[in-house]
Protein backbone atom coordinates (compact mmCIF):
# COMPACT_ATOMS: atom_id res chain seq x y z
CA UNK A 1 0.00 0.00 0.00
CA UNK A 2 1.00 3.62 -0.48
CA UNK A 3 0.93 6.50 2.01
CA UNK A 4 -1.15 9.48 0.91
CA UNK A 5 1.97 11.54 0.13
CA UNK A 6 3.43 8.88 -2.11
CA UNK A 7 0.07 8.25 -3.77
CA UNK A 8 -0.21 12.00 -4.38
CA UNK A 9 3.17 12.11 -6.15
CA UNK A 10 2.36 9.09 -8.32
CA UNK A 11 -1.09 10.33 -9.41
CA UNK A 12 -0.38 14.06 -9.55
CA UNK A 13 -3.40 14.74 -7.30
CA UNK A 14 -2.67 17.00 -4.32
CA UNK A 15 -3.04 15.71 -0.78
CA UNK A 16 -5.70 18.36 -0.21
CA UNK A 17 -7.77 17.05 -3.13
CA UNK A 18 -7.29 13.43 -2.08
CA UNK A 19 -8.68 14.30 1.34
CA UNK A 20 -11.60 16.07 -0.35
CA UNK A 21 -12.26 13.02 -2.57
CA UNK A 22 -12.28 10.88 0.56
CA UNK A 23 -14.72 13.28 2.25
CA UNK A 24 -17.23 13.14 -0.63
CA UNK A 25 -16.79 9.41 -1.18
CA UNK A 26 -15.22 9.69 -4.62
CA UNK A 27 -11.88 8.01 -3.84
CA UNK A 28 -11.77 6.43 -0.39
CA UNK A 29 -8.41 5.24 1.05
CA UNK A 30 -8.06 1.50 1.28
CA UNK A 31 -6.91 1.76 4.87
CA UNK A 32 -6.77 4.45 7.57
CA UNK A 33 -4.47 3.81 10.52
CA UNK A 34 -6.50 3.99 13.71
CA UNK A 35 -3.72 5.38 15.90
CA UNK A 36 -2.27 7.98 13.53
CA UNK A 37 -5.09 8.61 11.06
CA UNK A 38 -2.68 8.14 8.13
CA UNK A 39 -4.37 7.33 4.87
CA UNK A 40 -3.12 4.46 2.74
CA UNK A 41 -4.10 3.71 -0.86
CA UNK A 42 -3.82 0.48 -2.81
CA UNK A 43 -1.83 0.30 -6.03
CA UNK A 44 -5.02 -0.83 -7.79
CA UNK A 45 -6.48 2.62 -7.00
CA UNK A 46 -3.91 4.37 -9.23
CA UNK A 47 -5.98 3.76 -12.44
CA UNK A 48 -9.08 5.02 -10.61
CA UNK A 49 -7.26 8.20 -9.58
CA UNK A 50 -5.99 8.70 -13.13
CA UNK A 51 -9.54 8.25 -14.44
CA UNK A 52 -10.78 10.95 -12.07
CA UNK A 53 -8.01 13.29 -13.18
CA UNK A 54 -8.78 12.76 -16.88
CA UNK A 55 -12.49 13.36 -16.39
CA UNK A 56 -11.77 16.55 -14.43
CA UNK A 57 -9.57 17.80 -17.27
CA UNK A 58 -12.46 17.10 -19.67
CA UNK A 59 -14.65 19.42 -17.64
CA UNK A 60 -16.69 16.99 -15.57
CA UNK A 61 -17.69 18.12 -12.09
CA UNK A 62 -16.92 15.93 -9.09
CA UNK A 63 -20.64 15.18 -8.79
CA UNK A 64 -20.73 14.02 -12.41
CA UNK A 65 -17.61 11.91 -11.94
CA UNK A 66 -19.26 10.30 -8.94
CA UNK A 67 -22.34 9.52 -11.02
CA UNK A 68 -20.21 7.78 -13.62
CA UNK A 69 -19.22 5.48 -10.76
CA UNK A 70 -15.68 4.70 -11.77
CA UNK A 71 -14.84 2.99 -8.50
CA UNK A 72 -14.92 -0.77 -9.00
CA UNK A 73 -17.17 -1.20 -5.98
CA UNK A 74 -19.77 1.14 -7.46
CA UNK A 75 -19.65 0.13 -11.13
CA UNK A 76 -22.90 -0.78 -12.85
CA UNK A 77 -23.38 -3.82 -15.03
CA UNK A 78 -22.27 -1.94 -18.14
CA UNK A 79 -19.85 0.83 -17.08
CA UNK A 80 -18.69 1.45 -20.65
CA UNK A 81 -22.23 2.31 -21.80
CA UNK A 82 -22.61 4.62 -18.79
CA UNK A 83 -19.37 6.44 -19.59
CA UNK A 84 -20.38 6.77 -23.26
CA UNK A 85 -23.67 8.37 -22.18
CA UNK A 86 -21.95 10.88 -19.90
CA UNK A 87 -19.33 11.74 -22.53
CA UNK A 88 -22.03 12.26 -25.17
CA UNK A 89 -23.96 14.55 -22.82
CA UNK A 90 -20.82 16.51 -21.98
CA UNK A 91 -19.98 16.95 -25.66
CA UNK A 92 -23.48 18.37 -26.22
CA UNK A 93 -23.07 20.75 -23.25
CA UNK A 94 -19.72 21.99 -24.55
CA UNK A 95 -21.13 22.51 -28.06
CA UNK A 96 -23.99 24.55 -26.60
CA UNK A 97 -21.48 26.52 -24.52
CA UNK A 98 -19.48 27.28 -27.68
CA UNK A 99 -22.66 28.60 -29.31
CA UNK A 100 -23.34 30.84 -26.30
CA UNK A 101 -19.78 32.13 -26.32
CA UNK A 102 -19.99 32.86 -30.06
CA UNK A 103 -23.18 34.86 -29.45
CA UNK A 104 -21.49 36.73 -26.58
CA UNK A 105 -18.48 37.55 -28.76
CA UNK A 106 -20.74 38.88 -31.51
CA UNK A 107 -22.70 40.97 -29.00
CA UNK A 108 -19.46 42.35 -27.55
CA UNK A 109 -18.26 43.29 -31.03
CA UNK A 110 -21.58 45.05 -31.69
CA UNK A 111 -21.31 46.83 -28.34
CA UNK A 112 -17.71 47.82 -29.08
CA UNK A 113 -18.80 49.36 -32.38
CA UNK A 114 -21.67 51.19 -30.66
CA UNK A 115 -19.43 52.48 -27.86
CA UNK A 116 -16.92 53.67 -30.47
CA UNK A 117 -19.76 55.61 -32.12
CA UNK A 118 -20.76 56.94 -28.68
CA UNK A 119 -24.18 55.26 -28.91
CA UNK A 120 -26.01 56.00 -25.65
CA UNK A 121 -27.90 52.69 -25.79
CA UNK A 122 -24.79 50.47 -25.93
CA UNK A 123 -24.65 47.71 -23.29
CA UNK A 124 -28.13 48.63 -22.04
CA UNK A 125 -30.51 45.93 -23.32
CA UNK A 126 -31.43 43.13 -20.92
CA UNK A 127 -33.86 40.22 -21.31
CA UNK A 128 -36.23 39.63 -18.42
CA UNK A 129 -39.57 38.13 -17.48
CA UNK A 130 -42.37 40.69 -17.08
CA UNK A 131 -44.77 39.19 -14.50
CA UNK A 132 -48.47 38.67 -15.18
CA UNK A 133 -50.66 41.48 -13.90
CA UNK A 134 -54.28 42.66 -13.64
CA UNK A 135 -54.68 46.15 -15.05
CA UNK A 136 -57.17 48.94 -15.44
CA UNK A 137 -56.63 50.63 -18.78
CA UNK A 138 -57.82 53.61 -20.79
CA UNK A 139 -57.27 53.76 -24.54
CA UNK A 140 -57.72 56.84 -26.69
CA UNK A 141 -56.27 58.86 -29.55
CA UNK A 142 -53.85 61.70 -28.85
CA UNK A 143 -52.05 64.12 -31.17
CA UNK A 144 -48.70 64.35 -29.35
CA UNK A 145 -47.00 62.01 -26.90
CA UNK A 146 -46.93 64.87 -24.38
CA UNK A 147 -50.73 64.66 -24.44
CA UNK A 148 -50.49 61.24 -22.80
CA UNK A 149 -50.62 63.11 -19.50
CA UNK A 150 -54.30 63.84 -20.17
CA UNK A 151 -55.02 60.10 -20.26
CA UNK A 152 -53.23 59.56 -16.97
CA UNK A 153 -55.17 62.38 -15.32
CA UNK A 154 -58.45 60.90 -16.55
CA UNK A 155 -57.74 57.32 -15.47
CA UNK A 156 -56.55 58.44 -12.03
CA UNK A 157 -59.71 60.53 -11.56
CA UNK A 158 -61.92 57.54 -12.43
CA UNK A 159 -59.97 55.29 -10.04
CA UNK A 160 -60.59 57.73 -7.20
CA UNK A 161 -64.27 58.20 -8.04
CA UNK A 162 -64.99 54.46 -8.34
CA UNK A 163 -62.65 53.47 -5.49
CA UNK A 164 -60.83 50.86 -7.56
CA UNK A 165 -58.02 49.36 -5.50
CA UNK A 166 -54.53 49.50 -7.00
CA UNK A 167 -51.69 47.15 -6.03
CA UNK A 168 -48.73 48.39 -4.01
CA UNK A 169 -46.79 48.72 -7.26
CA UNK A 170 -46.21 52.36 -8.16
CA UNK A 171 -45.21 51.52 -11.73
CA UNK A 172 -47.42 52.34 -14.69
CA UNK A 173 -47.48 51.11 -18.28
CA UNK A 174 -48.32 52.54 -21.68
CA UNK A 175 -48.76 50.94 -25.11
CA UNK A 176 -48.79 52.73 -28.46
CA UNK A 177 -51.04 50.56 -30.62
CA UNK A 178 -50.69 52.69 -33.73
CA UNK A 179 -48.70 55.80 -34.63
CA UNK A 180 -49.47 57.95 -37.66
CA UNK A 181 -46.77 60.60 -37.68
CA UNK A 182 -48.04 62.14 -40.91
CA UNK A 183 -51.37 63.10 -39.38
CA UNK A 184 -50.07 63.30 -35.80
CA UNK A 185 -52.51 60.72 -34.53
CA UNK A 186 -51.48 58.15 -31.92
CA UNK A 187 -53.56 55.27 -30.54
CA UNK A 188 -52.34 55.00 -26.93
CA UNK A 189 -53.33 52.83 -23.97
CA UNK A 190 -52.32 53.63 -20.38
CA UNK A 191 -52.41 50.99 -17.64
CA UNK A 192 -52.19 50.71 -13.86
CA UNK A 193 -52.09 47.51 -11.81
CA UNK A 194 -55.20 46.65 -9.80
CA UNK A 195 -55.77 44.07 -7.06
CA UNK A 196 -58.55 42.35 -9.02
CA UNK A 197 -60.55 42.65 -12.23
CA UNK A 198 -63.60 44.87 -11.88
CA UNK A 199 -66.59 45.35 -14.21
CA UNK A 200 -65.74 47.47 -17.27
CA UNK A 201 -66.83 51.10 -17.27
CA UNK A 202 -67.60 53.40 -20.20
CA UNK A 203 -64.09 54.89 -20.35
CA UNK A 204 -61.96 52.31 -18.54
CA UNK A 205 -61.68 48.55 -18.90
CA UNK A 206 -59.96 45.69 -17.10
CA UNK A 207 -57.89 42.72 -18.27
CA UNK A 208 -55.27 40.23 -17.19
CA UNK A 209 -51.96 40.48 -19.00
CA UNK A 210 -49.97 37.25 -19.07
CA UNK A 211 -46.29 36.95 -18.22
CA UNK A 212 -43.95 37.57 -21.12
CA UNK A 213 -40.26 37.55 -21.90
CA UNK A 214 -39.10 40.94 -23.08
CA UNK A 215 -36.02 42.75 -24.29
CA UNK A 216 -35.87 45.85 -22.12
CA UNK A 217 -33.90 49.07 -22.00
CA UNK A 218 -34.21 51.41 -19.02
CA UNK A 219 -33.03 55.01 -19.31
CA UNK A 220 -33.07 58.23 -17.33
CA UNK A 221 -34.19 61.51 -18.85
CA UNK A 222 -36.80 63.17 -21.00
CA UNK A 223 -39.35 61.26 -23.06
CA UNK A 224 -38.06 62.66 -26.35
CA UNK A 225 -35.47 59.84 -26.26
CA UNK A 226 -38.14 57.14 -26.62
CA UNK A 227 -38.38 57.33 -30.43
CA UNK A 228 -34.65 56.78 -30.88
CA UNK A 229 -34.66 53.97 -28.29
CA UNK A 230 -37.56 52.21 -30.02
CA UNK A 231 -35.60 52.19 -33.29
CA UNK A 232 -32.50 50.88 -31.52
CA UNK A 233 -34.48 48.14 -29.77
CA UNK A 234 -36.12 47.02 -32.99
CA UNK A 235 -32.70 46.56 -34.61
CA UNK A 236 -31.30 44.86 -31.48
CA UNK A 237 -34.09 42.26 -31.50
CA UNK A 238 -33.46 41.42 -35.16
CA UNK A 239 -29.67 41.22 -34.78
CA UNK A 240 -29.79 38.94 -31.75
CA UNK A 241 -31.93 36.12 -33.11
CA UNK A 242 -35.31 37.10 -31.67
CA UNK A 243 -38.63 38.14 -33.12
CA UNK A 244 -41.18 40.51 -31.63
CA UNK A 245 -44.05 38.51 -30.12
CA UNK A 246 -46.39 41.26 -28.95
CA UNK A 247 -47.01 44.98 -28.66
CA UNK A 248 -44.06 46.98 -27.36
CA UNK A 249 -44.85 48.85 -24.17
CA UNK A 250 -43.32 51.37 -21.82
CA UNK A 251 -42.95 51.00 -18.05
CA UNK A 252 -42.65 54.19 -16.01
CA UNK A 253 -40.66 54.08 -12.75
CA UNK A 254 -40.20 57.82 -12.15
CA UNK A 255 -42.66 59.93 -14.13
CA UNK A 256 -44.57 63.22 -13.82
CA UNK A 257 -46.77 61.61 -11.15
CA UNK A 258 -43.88 61.15 -8.71
CA UNK A 259 -40.96 63.21 -10.09
CA UNK A 260 -41.18 66.92 -11.04
CA UNK A 261 -37.88 67.10 -12.97
CA UNK A 262 -38.07 65.53 -16.47
CA UNK A 263 -34.31 64.96 -16.44
CA UNK A 264 -34.82 62.51 -13.56
CA UNK A 265 -37.57 60.44 -15.19
CA UNK A 266 -36.74 56.71 -15.26
CA UNK A 267 -38.46 54.80 -18.06
CA UNK A 268 -38.14 51.27 -19.44
CA UNK A 269 -38.95 50.39 -23.05
CA UNK A 270 -40.06 46.74 -23.35
CA UNK A 271 -40.32 44.59 -26.48
CA UNK A 272 -42.02 41.18 -25.98
CA UNK A 273 -39.84 38.64 -27.79
CA UNK A 274 -39.38 34.98 -28.57
CA UNK A 275 -36.29 33.18 -29.83
CA UNK A 276 -36.25 32.30 -33.50
CA UNK A 277 -35.90 28.51 -33.65
Model description:
- This is DNA-binding transcriptional regulator, MerR family.
- InterPro entries: AraC_E-bd, DNA-bd_dom_put_sf, GyrI-like, MerR-type_HTH_dom, MerR_fam, Reg_factor_effector_dom_sf.
- It contains seven helices and twelve strands.
- With 277 residues, it is α+β, with helices and mostly antiparallel strands.
- The strands form two sheets. Strands 4, 5, 6, 7, 8, 9, 10, 11 and 12 form a nine-stranded antiparallel beta sheet that branches. A three-stranded antiparallel beta sheet has the order 1-3-2.
- The radius of gyration is 30 Å and the shape is elongated.
- The two termini are 57 Å apart.
- The mean pLDDT is 87.
Quick overview of this protein structure:
It is built from seven helices and twelve strands. It has helices at residues 4-11, 15-24, 46-57, 62-68, 79-116, 148-162, 226-239; strands at residues 2-3, 31-32, 39-41, 125-130, 133-142, 172-180, 185-193, 205-209, 212-220, 242-244, 249-254, 266-275.
Helix and strand topology:
Layout: E1 2-3, H1 4-11, H2 15-24, E2 31-32, E3 39-41, H3 46-57, H4 62-68, H5 79-116, E4 125-130, E5 133-142, H6 148-162, E6 172-180, E7 185-193, E8 205-209, E9 212-220, H7 226-239, E10 242-244, E11 249-254, E12 266-275
Antiparallel strand pairs: 1-3, 2-3, 4-9, 5-7, 5-8, 6-7, 6-11, 9-12, 10-12, 11-12
Short key terms for the protein model shown above:
277 residues, alpha+beta, Multidrug-efflux Transporter Regulator, Chain: A, Domain 2, Multidrug-efflux Transporter 1 Regulator Bmrr, Chain A, 3 domains, nine-stranded antiparallel sheet, three-stranded antiparallel sheet, 7 helices, 12 strands, 38% helix
